[in-house]
Amino acid sequence: MFLPILFIFSLLPFSHSAVQDFCVGDLALPDTPAGYPCKKPAKVTVNDFVYSALGVAGNTSNLIKAAVTPAFVTQFPGLNGLGLSLARLDLAVDGVVPMHTHPGASEVLFVLEGTICAGFISSTDNVVYFQALNKGDIMIFPQGLLHFQINSGEGVAIAIVSFSSPSPGLQITDFALFGNNLPTELVVKTTFLDEAQVKKLKGVLGGTG
């Protein structure tokens, strides 16, 4: 029985589709759920695969004393379709990346300098996993979970972050709650904060309503 089946399959036509080495994103075309359309091979250069911005410190003179320099597909089109991206994190003294999520990717944090207290919260039972990380330490943050990073040392802190998507997405909880035009009374109801606190936070984070 086995040999006749092999014979039948040997008579069927087989087509071998070419395996594509890469798909450098053509950022002039619309993004799609599968990524950007591929740039024509004749227009691809080595510069599509090299990115230097992560060697420059970000500007931390802001409210959270932190800067994230992304190397996502929109900055680094060679990442298109490869399922990864990176960023540089700079934290001044007392700098913080508040509670936030990346809906589209898991994250790996690698500390290059300083001390960073980092952690995440599980979605099933709200267990918090956090630790002070020193130079050379790595921590992972599973996709979609709330997490944070705080400079807990006495000097600047620097880290490189990698993501399991060229477009990981970002939503910072504080800005989502208080940096929009959702009416104050609704924010009070959904956060259990009093009206004065909500209005103060809206004023700090640019919200209205």
From TrEMBL:
Disulfide bonds join C23-C38. SMART domains: Cupin_1. It is found in: Secreted, Extracellular space, Apoplast. InterPro entries: Cupin_1, Germin, Germin_Mn-BS, RmlC-like_jellyroll, RmlC_Cupin_sf. It comes from the Eukaryota. GO terms for molecular function: manganese ion binding. GO terms for cellular component: apoplast. Mn(2+) binds at H100, H102, E107, H147. Residues 1-17 form the signal peptide. Keywords: Apoplast, Disulfide bond, Manganese, Metal-binding, Secreted, Signal. Residues 52-199 form the Cupin type-1 domain. The keyword Plastid does not apply. Oxalate binds at H102, E107. Belongs to the germin family. This is Germin-like protein. It comes from Actinidia chinensis var. chinensis.
